[in-house]
Prior knowledge:
The protein is about 15% helix and about 20% strand. By secondary structure, it is α+β, with helices and mostly antiparallel strands. The strands form two sheets. The chain has a four-stranded antiparallel β-sheet with strand order 2-3-1-6. The protein has a two-stranded antiparallel ribbon with strand order 4-5. The protein is globular.
Amino acid sequence: MNTKMYVGNLPFTATEDDVRALFTDYGTVTDIHLPMDRDSGRPRGFAFVTMDSQTAMNEAIRGLNEKDFGGRNLTINEARPKEDRPAGGYGGGGGGRGGYGGGKGGGRGGYSGGGGGRY
């Protein structure tokens, strides 16, 4: 029984207490994960909120999805477990040719670094 929600489009100034206060009208909040940007130290604009029951989670989704919070319309839906997401993005997927130059065995044109040209 999943009771975790993805909460997107949060204001970058939102704190864990702000998010908790938003959801307490719908039931008991058992956990909040508010990811921070590692460079700026600010919240990244989304959170994961876990409620104490499926009913509380469903009511929170119905009551808060698309609602204005801090000048932004929230996007709230049931969080999907990691194994259900497709591979890809940074650090996922695998394959490909590597970084600059495409790995070993001839590139696909562009700057070769060799001399002898007109330049």
